[in-house]
Amino acid sequence: MTALREILLRRITATGPISIAEYMTECLLHPAHGYYTTRDPLGAGGDFTTAPEISQMFGELLGLCLAQAWLDQGAPEAFVLAEPGPGRGTLMADMLRATARVPGFHAAARLHLVEASPALRTVQARALPQATWHDRIDQIPDDLPLYLVANEFFDALPIRQFVRDGAGWRERVVGRDGDELVFGLTAPAPLAELEHRLADTRDGDMVEQSPALPALTGEIGGRIARRGGAALIVDYGGRGRTGDSFQAVRGHEKVDPLAAPGEADLTAHVDFEALGRAAAPAACAGPVPQGVFLERLGITARAQALAAKLEGTALDAHVAAHRRLTHPEEMGDLFKVAALHPCNAPPPPGIET
Ligand code: SAH
Q: Which of 221, 228, 257, 293 could in theory staple to 248 by disulfide, Cβ–Cβ 3.0 to 4.6 A?
């Protein structure tokens, strides 16, 4: 039994079943036993792989996309370049390499990272020694335009799950059965914050809601509306969906989310409709499928240029990486890109709908 399972069982005995959001928070970020707090989970030897770890092209194109948004807004001479949840720092390092020849961009950028994991901060410091780290987005200085990128960060935000029951909702919770953690449902009750979902759901449908998403997105959107800037948000998800997207991944395989708390990555699909609503007073463009976005930014030309210098297994791996990022049956459709931007500035390139 993991130490965290024991802690959770004791807590449930003392104060009753906990929400999925509380379970996710403890499993991912518990100071001593949390999944992210204690390890670097990325890459072939880890639990999962992300787009920037698959190919340098992903970060290069996102970097040039943000740099174009900066140029479109008059190339302000100082700005915050921010990334929440930077993983190994690969995405930002690729963005910086690709933008080194955009005149003035590097001189103007102040790099701020938001990372909850001490283990990952150490890895990031090797790739990005010039950065300043924060625990939360609202701690980033708020006196400059904000250019932000987030890849697979919002999917780690804890969610609550509710099952429709008549005009009310039953919340899915984690309780105990002996020494096992088990799912349960609360008694049905009406919920003001889910009033708008009564129109597009039926009895028995499950809806998900991220309690932290509105404030977080509102903070980013508010800054972009006031100071200028843009945010590129890449994640898997869709608009106002129903269904259970809560999942655990360990060793590149899907596993039971309750089986080994703190030992598996826990994620949920991002609700891009909620994200768009919370972005005001900034505008939210998209989401567009990742494959479409990368094609619009010229990934095929970039892939061909890189391919010309490769041969053998390196060339095969490069071709496979291009396909993995863009093909609709791989990450191309499942992952979406949305952008926040000021209402009086164009959306970053590739997101125009
Ligand atoms: N963006 C990276 C890593 C994605 S994994 C990539 O694409 O490779 C999720 C990242 O978010 C990790 O760095 C994790 O430690 C961080 N994270 C998760 N929840 C967080 C929170 N509440 N606050 C800050 N960082 C968080």
A: 257
Q: Residues near 153 by Cβ (< 8 Å), separated by ≥ 6? A: 84, 85, 235
How many C-beta neighbours within 10 Å does residue 141 have? Answer: 12
pLDDT digits (tens, 9 = 90+) for 169-196: 999 999 999 999 999 999 999 999 899 8
Q: Given a cut of 80, is residue 20 above it in pLDDT?
A: yes
Q: What are phi and psi of 232, to 5 degrees?
A: -105, 120
- Please write the tens of the pLDDT for every residue from 305-337: 999 999 999 999 999 999 999 999 999 999 999
Judge contact between 56 and 64, C-beta under 8 A: no
* Mutate-to-test residue for ligand 1 from 122, 153, 159, 217, highest number of ligand atoms within 8 A of CB: 153
- Residues within a 6 A CB radius of ligand 1: 28, 36, 42, 50, 52-53, 84-87, 91, 114-117, 120, 151-153, 156
Whole-number Å distance, alpha carbon 307 to ligand 1 midpoint, is 31
Whether the pLDDT of residue 291 is over 90: the answer is: yes
**Tokens 């297994």 sit on residue:** 313
- How far is residue 255's CA from residue 163's CA, in Å, rounded to a whole number? 22
User: Best mutation site among 115, 133, 267 for ligand 1, i.e. most ligand atoms within 8 A of its Cβ?
Assistant: 115
In this structure, the strands spanning 168-177 and 18-19 are antiparallel
Q: How far is the CA of 305 from the centre of ligand 1 (A)?
A: 31
- Report the residue among 22, 29, 36 best suited for mutation to probe ligand 1: largest number of ligand atoms under 8 A from its CB: 36
pTM for the model stands at: 0.95
Residue 47 banded pLDDT, cuts 50, 70, 90: confident
Which two structure tokens, joined as six digits, stand for 107?
């001189």
Reduced to 3 states (helix: H, G, I; strand: E, B; else coil), residue 14 is helix
